[in-house]
Amino acid sequence: MLIPEYRDMLAAHKRIQPYIRRTPVRVSEYLNELTGAQLFFKCENFQEPGAFKVRGAANAVFGLDDAQAARGVATHSSGNHASCLSYAAMRRGIPCNVVMPRTAPQAKKDTVRRYGGVITECEPSTSSREETFAKVQAQTGGDFVHPYNDPRVIAGQGTCSKEFMEQTGGLDMVVAPIGGGGMISGTCLTLSTLAPETKVIAAEPEQADDAYRSFKAGHIIADDAPKTIADGLLVPLKDLTWHFVSNHVSEIYTTSDAEIVDAMKLIWKHLRVVMEPSSAVPLATILKNKDAFAGKRVGIIITGGNVDLDKLPWL
Amino acid sequence: MLIPEYRDMLAAHKRIQPYIRRTPVRVSEYLNELTGAQLFFKCENFQEPGAFKVRGAANAVFGLDDAQAARGVATHSSGNHASCLSYAAMRRGIPCNVVMPRTAPQAKKDTVRRYGGVITECEPSTSSREETFAKVQAQTGGDFVHPYNDPRVIAGQGTCSKEFMEQTGGLDMVVAPIGGGGMISGTCLTLSTLAPETKVIAAEPEQADDAYRSFKAGHIIADDAPKTIADGLLVPLKDLTWHFVSNHVSEIYTTSDAEIVDAMKLIWKHLRVVMEPSSAVPLATILKNKDAFAGKRVGIIITGGNVDLDKLPWL
Predict the structure, then answer these.
(1) Each residue of B33-43: pLDDT tens digit?
(2) Which residues of chain B neighbour A50 with C-beta distances below 8 Å?
(3) Domains defined along chain A, listed by start
(4) Tens digits of per-residue pLDDT, B220-246?
(5) Do B46 and A314 touch (CB under 8 A)?
(6) What is the pLDDT of residues A111-130, one digit of tens each?
(7) Which of B28, B114, B274 sits opposite A272 (nearest CB)?
(8) B262 forms bridges with which residues in the sheet?
(9) Of B307, B305, B306, nearest to B44 (Cα)?
(10) Which residues on A lie below 8 Å from B114 (Cβ)?
(11) Looking at the predicted structure, is the pLDDT value of residue B211 above 80?
(12) Is A138 exposed, middle or buried (CB count within 10 Å of its CB: 0-12, 13-18, 19+)?
């Protein structure tokens, strides 16, 4: 297991600079009053493809040597990683093959194709996905870029916290949602060196609380098919992300889907940004555990903004 | 008629600095491709009370001498000016009285009250509003801050374009929505001195096209009760805003409500910001008149972000 280091994150930041945005940090006097904390929101939903995942994807894509780049990249994902990897590959002008379940929303498929990604559909099961992916990879020779359990991806995600600390001048805590743990691992990677006094806190949906249970048990627990409105957080931890979570995360909190939707609407109304349910889990966590955050400078990563505007969860 | 000058705008910017945000400028590769122009969106919806109008309101409020400040400010408005003036007054700790039609949306009344504004309700007619406002002003002695036909307000709104030019390094055109003409006048005030080669273009709903018809006729035409989804743009030009529109605006374009809603959804989806229908009129205009904007560096002011999340116009 190759564990990415701080210097890998620094190299990543230099490498991906032309392809990512230094996203703005938003504040709201209203949300500060409501929570009793001083909140800073890093708007990764403002990346061109709408998610922080472009950082890790771009780091993988632009770190390839020319020979490998010519064969392109490949992944399986039905979410933001698929579109972010396609976007990064398009920027480099190399092929990107994506295996997606045929049941994935049409909008997600459209986005991948808009960025030149080639989709191979599979059945919505792990066995079909693995089989299909193996075939695609054998045919294309594309370099496998895992959505989160990849040192290049984690080093890329870590660049977000570096900017966040520069932009805010320091934070007591950073709260990010946890699914597979890519963003949380990148955050741990960066802050454990850059600001070891800043706590890293993970926020997870109650209905997909495998990271919480893993954290308490001391080993990875993976659920079969969790269901939550926070559809970016369904995947389990893997060895590399477990390394960071088990060593550097201070606490994992869980919140209900109803609490997530309430927090999402508050952010839309008062920060006036369009973001997805997964990104609302940190604010839901802070509202549910006010005492743990009161009086603190708390950074929240708004991880993504790809949501179906015709089906908002509060309507 | 006291016409505000460039130095008034500079003084306003200094005065209001602590109470406003230097709002970020957003870009979208997707919207650039779609329009063939290079678009820059200045997100005034990110002001704390959600609209550019806090600039003019804060300039009026913080420009008062102590004696007048003690008596506070007063206005009539059912929209963003009411909440922005209440917000500015709250920041200075002085009274703010607002006359609003009893039919105004509850959410707007709630926002004014949240900022400590005192509402006196009137019937939804001009005569009732004027009568009620005269009474309130006589009782309180509050200084009347008109929503747009006030040199302090126009000088305040002009600070937006100053930041916009600094942030973008120059633009070929700035497009803003036009209702009473406060933002457009401020834009003209600033750019006619700071960047006289930058064209100021106004975008108006077809269904409230009194500014367009005034511009073509060469004198103010006011409609009685226009109806459009762009509910921030219902009011007519007045002498002061007509001065700027007639002297400095290059063109006024109109678009249908359906085009406005389409543009609004595009902005929500690709810029991922929550903004109101009025703020979508510029993009609707550009999409409808692509040839006029193709290849140009075009600034768009996203004027406000106060919208009922339970009643989105495309649903």
Answers:
(1) 999 999 999 99
(2) 272
(3) 6-51+151-302 (3.40.50.1100), 54-144 (3.40.50.1100)
(4) 999 878 899 998 898 999 999 999 999
(5) no
(6) 999 999 999 999 988 889 99
(7) B274
(8) none
(9) B305
(10) 30
(11) yes
(12) exposed
